[in-house]
Specification:
This protein is an alpha/beta fold and 278 residues long. The chain is built from 5 helices and 14 strands. It has helices at residues 22-33, 65-88, 98-103, 205-216, 231-248, and strands at residues 5-11, 38-44, 57-60, 92-96, 106-108, 114-116, 123-140, 147-161, 169-173, 183-184, 186-188, 191-194, 255-256, 259-260. The termini are far apart. The structure holds glutamine.
Length: 278
């Protein structure tokens, strides 16, 4: 795929980067370069202007409530509108946890701060008094990325989706959007929001390619991406799934002997990781 360049914008890399989120950018870059696609990575942060036509793919990671407040102000000051314009025009986007929350309509933290979102996703988030922490498995039916997704979540926010977007998948194990309705993440056009840290993309290569293909289609007429040898990535995916299965065999977990017993029932928070915001 010589002569093709993917323009990737990493938003707030120094503020929004926890639990290996930066690995998503590395995975996108490597999967492109293995195919001969050049990747230009630009980092934009507080105060930088965002040209909606300058990028094919956006990435924003997770963050703690106090970093989210800084980013929230900056998004309201102009970047949010530019991001919405880019996604309406076909750009692809991946947002994780704290980033995902800020791209919805609002985030009311557990300590009572109201953070207005940019409204890209029809989603509202409210902080809870316990944190949802642990490994997650999700059944995803996104065209071209069908199958399980695996990751790790740690959030107090409970997100509820409105009719303007659809979930990324159904929770098989873990909490997902809110620990109640069985949904995880959201999809609007080529933009994805998810609670899955991990890093997510290195062990979910189909999702990485979903994003790359849609990002490239913003400026190129492409049917599909050439396949890669994903044996290592699939082995990592299987290892994460079998870890989750082992956890599920313990009392109180959602899976019973590998089969979902009650896929949509949240398991009790036994993390003891405490209350309130991070
Ligand atoms: N601070 C947010 C929450 O607790 C997001 C956390 C994160 O990005 N992991 O819900």
């Amino acid at each position: 795929m010589k002569g093709i360049t993917l323009r990737l914008c990493h938003l707030y890399p120094e503020l929004m980067n926890i639990y290996g989120d930066r690995g998503n950018v590395m995975a996108l870059e490597r999967r492109c370069s293995w195919r001969g696609i050049r990747v230009e990575i630009s980092s934009l942060s507080i105060g930088d202007a965002l040209d909606p036509s300058a990028f094919d793919l956006f990435f924003i990671g997770g963050g703690q409530d106090r970093e989210q407040m800084l980013v929230c102000d900056d998004l309201s000051a102009g970047k949010g509108a530019a991001l919405r314009e880019a996604v309406e025009d076909g750009a692809a986007l991946l947002s994780i946890c704290g980033g995902y929350q800020l791209l919805g309509k609002s985030f009311l933290t557990w300590t009572g701060e109201y953070l207005p979102g940019i409204g890209l996703f029809d989603a509202e988030t409210v902080g809870g008094d316990t944190r949802f922490i642990g490994n997650v498995a999700v059944r995803c039916d996104l065209e071209g990325a069908e199958g399980t997704l695996v990751g790790f979540e740690n959030h107090s926010g409970r997100t509820r989706l409105g009719p303007g977007c659809r979930p990324l998948g159904k929770v098989l194990h873990g909490y997902g959007n809110n620990g109640e309705d069985g949904t995880e993440g959201c999809v609007y056009r080529n933009a994805i929001g998810t609670y899955l840290h991990g890093s997510l993309l290195p062990k979910n290569p189909r999702l990485a390619d979903w994003l790359i293909l849609r990002a490239l289609r913003r400026r190129h007429d492409l049917e599909a991406l050439p396949p890669l040898d994903d044996s290592l990535e699939e082995a990592a995916h299987r290892a994460a799934l079998s870890l989750i299965r082992r956890e599920s065999l313990r009392p109180g977990m959602i899976f019973a002997r590998g089969k979902p017993r009650s896929p949509f029932r949240p398991r009790p928070d036994r993390s003891g990781a405490g209350k309130g915001s991070r």
